[in-house]
């Protein structure tokens, strides 16, 4: 019976700890402290040297939980990544995720070598363990703070953090193998890396497709779709790992494939994984907090802090500036990307691998990683909002976005039901406007369900549900937000042509015969403003495009929504022509007529 | 550049009867087709393409639909006054009753842009717009358009 009791106690303690983590998020939100640090703190407090006094040193369990948690977090990250938003940042993110990680590890290693008195290979392992930015930390800190970054910066950071973990995991495993088994050649290492990456990609894409197929073909009972997808993610992860492919890369890619295809129950899957990711974070950080032994930390505290400082202030910025050299980023964007090289659970998870394998002095990696992560979360995590604003890479919060309700319609995937409360100041209510691709379907008033015809006239306070394609649901928002107070249009702004912010530059170039950089031809006008205006676009902001000037007329969600075209003024209108001009003009006209004939 | 360099006296429709933006574009495309010998369908498509990017209504009840027609030999302008104003999705939400169509050949480049700026500037002038709205026949409209820029201001 005693063993049964100990299981019950473990369950109780575990649950209480996780609960404490959840409750502590309230405190964290109130004081703006980085949440993950708080979870870590809960673990430390409950641990051996804290008031909790729990004895925990099960590296095996930590590794298991860490793997599962990381797989889910990466999968969730992939699920939320839109192909369309990452296409533009694929190259810079990939450079950061591979060359960047290697550079960071290489630049951090010397400090570890000299101050920790370890061999070069061992110090390179220290570098590798702390080299990757943490997807969970980056996703969480950016989203939890309600921070809206300039699209390119945000996407680069997210894709980088999602794709560099597999590389760091690989680098770490490689070095651990080297340390425990001895020699291997550069070519073997490279070959193995290529194989892991390639197989990981294949497993990820194929697995993702299979899940999509299964999700849409198999009639699962309501509510089982989300768990199906979550376990499928772990199956993909496990299969890849067993086949010596990168499981982390595979789940990330699988998530991306699933997130970008129309599937049944997409919303419930995302909601479920959101919850799972939170839980994974909490469990992981609490466990890691438990595992650390602050008494021992003191031995390596000073060198560990030096490693952290080198990493943050030297290695990461150098890696970022080198990797982003071929891409056009502004210096302030590069500084911000350097600063948001958040380290998180991945580093501690990687540091537990040497412990698990039983390398000599394995605790050094763990302790250093712990200090690096704590410092990173404390300083970078706390200042991320400030840094974003100071460096002008943050966009102001979106104007009161309405609460959108999305409902899947079983039986087909093309349409879903999107609901909004009708507001008195909305475009929909004021002008009766809604896009042609959506169809008002039902109205809820005073708890009664009415057809749109019955509900006529629709009043503020009603809820309206429209049929719309899922991928365009967000575009419906602007019809239901409060309109900005209407003011008479600025007379200076009238008299210009207007185009939508979604207009592609090459279309403009074709109509107006202006020259556009071929690299930018496929960009939209709104992207053009995001890229070249070093602040958030506001009405009246201007940017030249060859001989015309683009003027922002209306902004929506902090992006240029309607853009006016200021055409080059006719000089001879502005000042009376001189006699020379007239002669020249006549000559030109005559020449034209001659050459035309 | 004079506006009358762009518009011939016969390229003026003094009282166009239309009820929608689409119909208006169709009508002026048909008229432009008669005068230039280009396919009316092609002209309509070009104008529609441009409207898809954003409205060519510039406010104050004026619209300047425009586009490029590769086979054209020179800039072609056509002015029309609508009998009844129509919705043109203008930014200031004002219905449109004055329309200036401008078609440009492939290599028109700077001339095209200058002509558009010139037209926009002329029609933005409230006095000119008032005179155009008050004119009942093509002859009267042509004489307003023919006013030199200085006296129009």
What's the structural blueprint in terms of helices and strands?
The complex is a heterodimer of chains A (597) and B (153).
Chain A lengths: L1 H30 L3 H12 L12 H21 L3 H4 L3 H27 L3 H12 L3 H10 L3 E2 L1 H31 L4 H32 L7 H18 L4 H13 L6 H26 L2 H30 L7 H9 L5 H13 L4 H29 L3 E2 L9 E4 L7 E6 L5 H5 L7 E7 L2 E3 L1 H4 L7 E6 L4 H4 L20 E4 L4 H8 L12 H8 L9 E4 L2 E9 L2 E8 L4 H4 L4 H18 L1
Chain B lengths: L6 E10 L4 H16 L3 H14 L3 E3 L2 E2 L2 E3 L7 E11 L9 E9 L4 H16 L1 H9 L3 H8 L3 H4 L1
Parallel strand pairs in B: 1-5, 3-6, 4-6
Antiparallel strand pairs in B: 2-3, 5-6
Helix pairs in contact in B: 1-2
Largest sheet of chain B: 6 strands, mixed
Extract low-pLDDT stretches of chain B: none
Euclidean distance between termini CA atoms of chain A: 108 Å
Largest sheet descriptor of chain A = 5 strands, antiparallel
Span of the ends, CA to CA of chain B: 15 Å
Assembly form of the protein: heterodimer
Q: How many helices of chain B?
A: 6
Work out the helicity level of chain B. 40-55%
Helix and strand element order of chain B: EHHEEEEEHHHH
The pLDDT mean of chain B sits at: 85
Largest interface in this structure = A-B, 30 and 33 residues
Q: How big a fraction of the residues of chain A is strand?
A: 5-15%
Low-pLDDT parts of chain A are 485-493, 571-575
Radius of gyration of chain A, whole Å: 28 Å
The count of helical stretches of chain A stands at: 23
- What gross morphology of chain B would you assign? globular
How much β-strand is present in the residues of chain B? 15-25%
Structural class category of chain A: alpha+beta
């Amino acid at each position: 019976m005693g063993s049964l009791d100990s299981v019950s106690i473990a369950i109780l303690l575990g649950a209480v700890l996780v609960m404490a983590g959840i409750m502590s998020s309230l405190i964290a939100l109130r004081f703006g402290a980085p949440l993950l640090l708080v979870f870590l703190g809960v673990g430390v407090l409950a641990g051996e040297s804290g008031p909790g006094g729990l004895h925990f040193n099960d590296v095996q369990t930590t590794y298991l939980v860490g793997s599962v948690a990381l797989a889910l977090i990466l999968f969730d990250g992939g699920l939320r990544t839109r192909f369309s938003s990452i296409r533009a940042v694929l190259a810079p993110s990939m450079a950061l995720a591979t060359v960047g990680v290697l550079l960071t590890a290489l630049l951090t290693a010397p400090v570890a070598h000299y101050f920790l008195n370890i061999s070069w290979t061992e110090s390179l392992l220290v570098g590798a363990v702390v080299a990757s930015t943490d997807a969970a930390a980056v996703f969480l800190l950016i989203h939890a703070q309600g921070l809206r970054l300039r699209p390119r910066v945000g996407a680069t950071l997210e894709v980088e953090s999602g794709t560099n973990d597999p590389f760091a995991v690989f680098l770490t495993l490689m070095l651990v193998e080297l340390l425990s088994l001895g020699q291997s050649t550069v070519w073997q290492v490279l070959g193995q890396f290529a194989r892991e990456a390639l197989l990981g990609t294949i497993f990820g894409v194929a697995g993702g497709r299979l899940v999509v197929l299964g999700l849409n073909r198999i009639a699962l009972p309501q509510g089982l779709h989300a768990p199906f997808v979550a376990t499928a993610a772990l199956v993909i992860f496990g299969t890849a790992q067993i086949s010596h492919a990168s499981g982390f890369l595979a789940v990330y890619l699988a998530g991306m494939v699933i997130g970008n295809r129309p599937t049944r129950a997409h919303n419930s899957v995302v909601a479920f994984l959101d919850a799972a990711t939170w839980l994974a974070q909490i469990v992981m950080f609490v466990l890691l907090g438990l595992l650390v032994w602050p008494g021992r930390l003191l031995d390596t505290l000073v060198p560990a802090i030096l490693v952290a400082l080198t990493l943050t202030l030297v290695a990461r910025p150098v890696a970022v500036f080198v990797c982003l050299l071929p891409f056009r980023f502004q210096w302030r964007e590069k500084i911000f990307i350097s600063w948001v090289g958040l380290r998180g659970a991945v580093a501690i998870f990687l540091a537990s691998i040497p412990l698990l394998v039983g390398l000599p002095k394995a605790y050094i990696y763990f302790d250093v990683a712990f200090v690096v992560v704590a410092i990173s979360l404390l300083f970078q995590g706390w200042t991320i909002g400030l840094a974003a604003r100071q460096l002008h890479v943050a966009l102001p919060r979106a104007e009161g976005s309405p609460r959108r309700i999305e409902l899947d319609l079983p039986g087909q995937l093309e349409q879903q039901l999107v609901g909004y409360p009708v507001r008195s100041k909305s475009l929909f209510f004021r002008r009766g406007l809604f896009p042609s691709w959506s169809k008002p379907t039902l109205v809820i008033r005073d708890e009664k369900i009415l057809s749109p015809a019955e509900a006529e006239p629709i009043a503020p306070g009603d809820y309206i549900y429209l049929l719309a394609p899922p991928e365009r649901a967000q575009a419906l928002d602007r019809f239901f937000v409060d309109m900005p107070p209407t003011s008479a249009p600025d007379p200076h702004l009238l008299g210009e042509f207007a185009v939508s912010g979604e207009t592609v530059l090459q279309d403009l170039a074709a109509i107006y015969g202006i020259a556009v950089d071929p690299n930018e031809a496929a960009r939209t006008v709104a992207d053009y403003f995001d890229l070249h205006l070093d602040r958030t676009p506001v009405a009246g902001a201007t940017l030249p495009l060859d001989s015309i000037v683009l003027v922002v007329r209306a902004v929506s969600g902090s992006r240029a929504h309607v853009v006016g075209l200021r055409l080059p003024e006719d000089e001879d209108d502005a000042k009376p022509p001189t006699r020379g001009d007239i002669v020249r003009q006549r000559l030109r006209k005559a020449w034209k007529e001659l050459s035309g004939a | 550049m004079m506006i009358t360099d762009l518009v011939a006296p016969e390229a003026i429709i003094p009282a166009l009867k239309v009820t929608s933006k689409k119909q208006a574009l169709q009508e002026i495309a048909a008229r432009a087709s008669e005068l230039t010998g280009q396919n009316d369908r092609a002209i309509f498509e070009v104008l529609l393409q441009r409207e898809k990017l954003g409205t060519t209504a510039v406010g104050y009840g004026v619209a300047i639909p425009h586009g490029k027609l590769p086979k054209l030999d020179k800039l072609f302008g056509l002015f029309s006054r609508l009998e009844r104003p129509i919705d043109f999705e203008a930014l200031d939400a004002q219905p449109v009753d004055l329309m200036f169509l401008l078609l440009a050949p492939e290599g028109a480049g700077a001339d095209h842009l200058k002509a558009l700026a010139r037209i926009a500037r002329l029609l933005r002038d409230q006095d000119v717009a008032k005179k155009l709205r008050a004119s009942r026949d093509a002859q009267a409209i042509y004489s307003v358009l023919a006013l030199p820029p200085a006296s129009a201001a």
